[in-house]
Design goal:
The complex is a heterodimer. Chain A is an alpha/beta fold. Chain A has one domain: Rossmann fold (3-Layer(aba) Sandwich). Chain A is 43% helix and 10% strand. Chain A contains 12 helices and 8 strands. In chain A, strands 2-1-3-4-8-7 form a 6-stranded parallel β-sheet, sandwiched between helices. A two-stranded antiparallel sheet of chain A has the order 5-6. In chain A, a hairpin with a 2-residue loop joins β5 and β6. The N terminus of chain A is likely disordered. Chain B is α/β, with parallel strands linked by helices. Chain B folds into 3 domains: 119 residues, Beta Barrel (OB fold (Dihydrolipoamide Acetyltransferase, E2P)), CATH 2.40.50.100; 184 residues, 3-Layer(aba) Sandwich (Rossmann fold); 127 residues, Rossmann fold, CATH 3.40.50.920. Helices cover 27% and strands 22% of the residues of chain B. In chain B, α3 links the parallel β11 and β12. In chain B, α1 crosses α9. Chain B is globular and about 80 Å long. Classes of the chains: A alpha/beta, B alpha/beta. Chains A and B meet through β2, α6 and α7 of A and α4, α5 and α6 of B.
Chain lengths: 347, 478
């Protein structure tokens, strides 16, 4: 009781401005819950396969896996409509799959093939699909935040009712341009949700070693942008937060910040020796907070049988294996592609 | 003790103005800070403050007088014990080191951010002024893109740029302008004057001072299907935003396998202005021209400014459009056509000649034309090429001219190292070696940060005399 009271007094004073409602866990139907499960499992198996292919030398360069963070993107993007746009940094495979970009197009890009979503010219960090309203896939930490504000600007300019979901990490949250974008987004009431995927480590630097204010949802306070801290390991909490945030933004009240507390199981990239945290720490999160195991329990409570889940697992493994086989066997770009797409027009 | 009060300059390039109104009359006492007069130019109105205490003596220039040269004595201020109107009796007492009255620009002033409070001064012969003066040279060869018999209208570069934006905004709803002071202030250099009135604040958008951020917002908006024109108050400030220009805008189409476009124009003044020092005087042409995925344009005259900016706005590719502050107020002929659009990537022969080719762009073209006039007096017939677009570079026009004259000098207002001039030298070596009768010479600014002092600035900047000297080297003439 006393502890509670102290914790309360450390909270900022009650704001005198309107705020979005306190998000409630989403009440998912059986089918919705199954879809969440499928989507999270697709990302996890896809990423595990990508890790394997990287180990075999089929994927080169930088490759950042989303394993452990699945509930964030699945919960948030399940609330989007076709009008909305998504932009993120370089840990982007999962977000793309949720934009319903075919897994084989993504995997073939990872292996650098002509059939990849960017014709093999982008790679893991630089993938885009205007058709699916996925605007990257950006390799410069924080760039997607002001670009996302620009997408929000275009939604507003065109009055198309869309909202931009702009993801960035706890590391990017310290970049200067993030605050330039915050300022303009609130000033112009742009329809954008800033999603801070706080996976605790910016490469090897933990949040509290890099951030003077480590409660990242408060980072919008000086711009009057409301922030909400969300359990990013819980897909229902993520979806519930998305509902409140979207209601706020779609009502023309300007941007919202969602700080999603999450955790990545793998290294920052494939080449990360992960000396900055113990194996026990990672294992503890896996054991206690795994987002997929969490949904499995919820499904069990709803009476979904193990057989049904096994069938889903088998189907997903099939899709992922097919995409990997395709990505290995489909040809590399034609050498002529070296010179295409530099400019659109001829001069 | 009478003090001569002189016509002040609103900006380093102002030569004359209108003495719009006297706010004092002979016999009035004034003290420091009192507003004595209003001065106007075509671009701005300024209140003219007293610095010294005294009595207004003789008013030598009546209000409403146009074309009053900067530095003209417009009034005499009497110290204690002197009578109004008696200044002419005591010329010997006039101080040599007259304290200059302080000029304070009002909110309507427009001649640049740093120009707001220049004390009235004698015309200083600076390097920038030399460039400004040379920028009155017109092309001596008609642009083949202009139909014969087209009516020509004298237009400033500033107006030409504005007209280009306004025409394209009328034609395409997706086009909008954003930047610092582009809307309510009407542009830090008045290039966006009138756009807010016509198009409203949805399409003419004042941004906070936040170059990295708004360059990103503009780029994201272009990715989202709009056609932004992002104005940088000067390209010096765009260094804070260069990540989005290079990493976000230029590379997107390639990295997406050709499916994500970024049709954006980044524009603003580039290069040295007058006496603004090292951090505000830099030519970014070579920087951006080195980046695949960008179009880089740097026009000289008003017709090109208009025709090329319209082309830039219509282009599906990201364009860096480099203007020049010293050229903004210069007037040139612009063809009176419904839709004057020039092709990107085509250089222009500004003057035909047979002895040597001078390749230049932007403000360097004026100097090159001036140098050509000087050379003509010595019997050297120079051809002058304006590159107009720096990327893609029109090598053909340069190489054809080289084949004709066999000698090339590149004149560039910018540093020599890793410059556009260096690029032209390489092109001539690699693709025109057999036509060369002499080494290709770079005539550029000195390889130092631009100094402030007038004499040093003049030494550092390119001039027509330096171009003449360069040409003489390649024609082996002293």
């Amino acid at each position: 009781m006393a502890r509670n009271a102290r914790a309360k007094s450390a909270e900022p004073p009650v704001p005198n401005r309107e705020r979005p409602g306190e998000p409630q866990p989403y009440q998912a139907s059986r089918d919705e819950l199954l879809q969440f499960y499928k989507d999270m499992l697709l990302i996890r198996r896809f990423e595990e396969k990508a890790g394997q292919l990287y180990g075999l030398g089929l994927i080169g360069g930088f490759c950042h896996l989303y394993i452990g963070q699945e509930a964030v993107a699945v919960g948030l993007q399940s609330a989007l409509t076709e009008k909305d746009s998504v932009i993120t940094g370089y840990r982007d495979h999962g977000h793309m799959l949720l934009c319903r970009i075919p897994p084989k197009d993504v995997m073939a890009e990872l292996t650098g093939r002509q059939a990849g979503i960017s014709k093999g010219k982008g790679g893991s960090m630089h993938m885009f699909s205007v058709e699916h309203k996925f605007y990257g896939g950006h390799g410069i930490v924080g760039a997607q935040v002001s670009l996302g504000a620009g997408l929000g600007f275009s939604h507003k300019y065109n009055n198309d009712g869309g909202v931009c979901l702009a993801y960035f990490g706890d590391g990017a949250a310290n970049q200067g341009q993030v605050y330039e974008a915050f300022n303009m987004a609130e000033l112009w009431k742009l329809p954008i949700i800033f999603v801070i995927e706080n996976n605790q480590y910016a490469m090897g630097t933990s949040v509290n070693r890099a951030s003077s204010e480590d409660q990242l949802y408060r980072r919008g306070e000086s711009f009057r942008i409301p922030g909400i801290q969300v359990d990013g390991m819980d897909v229902l909490a993520a979806r519930g937060a998305a509902e409140e945030a979207l209601a706020w933004v779609r009502a023309g009240k300007g941007p919202v910040i969602l700080e999603m507390k999450t955790y990545r199981y793998r290294g920052h990239s494939m080449s990360d020796p992960a000396k900055y945290r113990s194996r026990e720490e990672v294992q503890a999160v896996r054991d206690k907070s795994d987002p997929i195991e969490h949904v499995k329990k919820l499904l069990d409570a709803k009476g979904v049988k193990e057989d049904e889940l096994k069938a889903i697992e088998a189907e997903i493994r099939k899709v992922v294996n097919e995409s990997a086989d395709f990505a290995e066997s489909t040809p590399e770009p034609d050498p002529k592609e070296l010179y295409t797409d530099v400019l659109v027009e001829k001069y | 003790m009478a003090i001569d009060i002189k016509m002040p300059a609103l900006s380093p390039t102002m030569e004359e103005g209108t003495l719009a109104k006297w706010l004092v009359k002979e016999g009035d006492t004034v003290k420091s800070g009192d507003i004595m007069a209003e001065i106007e130019t075509d671009k701005a109105t300024m209140e003219f403050e007293a610095v010294d205490e005294g009595t207004v003596g003789k008013i030598l220039v009546a209000e409403g007088t146009d074309n009053v040269k900067v530095g003209t004595v417009i009034m005499q201020l009497q110290g204690e014990g002197e009578e109004a109107g008696s200044a002419d009796k005591a010329p010997a007492e006039t101080k040599d080191d007259t304290p200059e009255p302080k000029a304070k620009a009002d909110a309507k002033k427009d001649d640049g951010v740093e120009d707001s409070a220049h004390p009235a001064q004698e015309k200083v012969e600076t390097g920038a002024r030399q460039m400004f003066e040379a920028a009155k040279h017109d092309a001596q060869v008609a642009d083949p893109a202009i139909p014969e018999g087209t009516e020509m209208v004298k237009t400033t570069v500033r107006e030409a740029l504005r007209d280009a934006m306004a025409e394209e905004m009328r034609a395409d709803e997706r086009v909008f302008v954003m930047g610092e002071e582009v809307a309510q202030y009407q542009g830090a250099y008045k290039v966006t004057q009138g756009l807010l009135d016509e198009f409203g604040d949805k399409r003419v958008i004042d941004t906070p001072i936040t170059e990295y951020g708004f360059a990103g917002v503009g780029t994201g908006a272009a990715m989202g299907g709009l056609r932004p024109i992002v104005e940088f108050m000067t390209f010096n400030f765009a260094m804070q935003a260069i990540d989005h220009i290079v990493n976000s805008a230029a590379k997107t189409n390639y990295m997406s396998g050709g499916q994500m476009r970024c049709p954006i124009v980044f524009r603003g003044p580039n290069g040295a202005a007058s006496r603004v020092g090292a951090q505000h005087s830099q030519n970014y042409g070579p920087w951006y021209a080195s980046v695949p995925g960008l179009i880089v344009i740097a026009p000289y005259d008003a017709a090109d400014a208009k025709g090329l900016l319209k082309a830039a706005i219509r282009s599906t590719d990201p364009v860096v459009f480099l203007e020049n502050e010293l050229l903004y107020g210069r007037s040139f002929d612009v063809p009176k056509l419904d839709d004057w659009v020039l092709p990107i990537g085509k250089a222009r022969i500004m003057r035909e000649g047979k002895d040597v080719t001078i390749v230049s762009y932007s403000i360097g073209v004026g100097l090159a034309l001036e140098a050509a006039d000087k050379l003509a007096e010595e019997g050297i017939d120079a051809e002058v090429i304006d590159l107009r677009t720096l990327r893609p570079l029109d090598k053909d026009t340069v190489l054809k001219s080289l084949a004709k004259t066999n000698r090339v000098v590149v004149a560039e207002e910018g540093w020599p190292t890793c410059s556009i001039a260096s690029e032209i030298v390489s092109t001539c070596m690699e693709e025109g070696f057999d036509d060369l009768d002499a080494p290709v010479i770079r005539v550029c600014n000195e390889d130092v940060p631009l100094p402030y002092a007038a004499n040093l600035e003049k030494l550092a900047l390119i001039s027509s005399d330096k171009i003449v000297a360069g040409v003489k080297k390649v024609v082996y003439k002293k």
